[in-house]
Amino acid sequence: MNQSGVAVWFTGLSGAGKTTITKAVAEKLRAQECKIEVLDGDIVRENLTKGLGFSKADRDENIRRIGFVAHLLTRNGVIVLVSAISPYREIREEIKNKIGDFVEVYVNAPLKVCEERDVKGLYKRARSGEIKNFTGIDDPYEPPLNPTVECRTDLEELDESVSNVLKKLKELGYIDEVANVQLVE
């Protein structure tokens, strides 16, 4: 199979559903035998960017490093699914311009919904002052102005979000078909 590489960049608040959608899209693409790699922000922070904090400079460096790896993979024909808060618009644009083949997916859920979904208790800790520079609480999240795809996870089911991403990848010529594969819950 001749496959074009692309970075599919899922951005949004903590708890918006980035990882959930990314895993489901990965499952469907694997079922179609696509070459894919998943770069999850939490896992990358444990390995590639360990030691970086949460200042704006450190967050930008974190995204640059993820973007560098994504660029290497995409230019070698891999579909890279990146799931990272990536709160600042300017750095996302920088990475988009560097990679070129870039699909920005805004995983959009209101802050209140994200806080209700917060199984790790991060928002509660941020609101109490225990965690500083937490995106959406005391550090800004700059939503994309013109995302390629927007997933409103407070209004749509997972299958609908996944379908919207896959349809856009097909429309842009990155995949041949949108397989009807049941998601494993």
Q: If you had to describe this structure to a student in words, what would you say it looks like?
A:
With 185 residues, the chain is an alpha/beta fold. It has one domain: P-loop containing nucleotide triphosphate hydrolases (Rossmann fold), CATH 3.40.50.300. 42% of the residues lie in helices and 15% in strands. The protein is built from 7 helices and 5 strands. It has helices at 18-31, 41-47, 56-74, 89-99, 111-117, 122-127, 158-171; strands at 6-11, 36-40, 79-83, 102-108, 149-152. It has a 5-stranded parallel β-sheet with strand order 2-3-1-4-5, with helices on both faces. Helix 3 (56-74) packs parallel to helix 4 (89-99). The protein is globular, with a radius of gyration of 16 Å.
Labels describing this entry:
185 residues, alpha/beta, five-stranded parallel β-sheet, 15% strand
Please write out the topology:
Layout: E1 6-11, H1 18-31, E2 36-40, H2 41-47, H3 56-74, E3 79-83, H4 89-99, E4 102-108, H5 111-117, H6 122-127, E5 149-152, H7 158-171
Helix pairs in contact: 1-7, 3-4
Compose a concise summary of this entry.
The protein is an alpha/beta fold and about 180 residues long.
Tell me roughly what share of residues is in helical segments: 40-55%
**How would you state the average pLDDT, rounded?**
91
CATH class: Alpha Beta
- The CATH architecture: 3-Layer(aba) Sandwich
Q: Biggest sheet, open or closed, and with what strands and sense?
A: 5 strands, parallel
Q: Which shape, going by the Cα principal axes? A: globular
Full CATH superfamily name = P-loop containing nucleotide triphosphate hydrolases
Strand content: 5-15%
Q: Return the CATH topology.
A: Rossmann fold
Tell me the number of helical segments per DSSP (H or I, 4 or more residues long): 7
Cα gyration radius (Å): 16 Å
**What is the total tally of β strands?**
5
- Spatial order of strands in the largest sheet: 2-3-1-4-5
What string, H for helix and E for strand, traces the elements in order? Answer: EHEHHEHEHHEH
Low-confidence stretches: none
- Helix/sheet category: alpha/beta
Q: How far apart, in Å, are the first and last alpha carbons?
A: 29 Å
Number of domains: 1
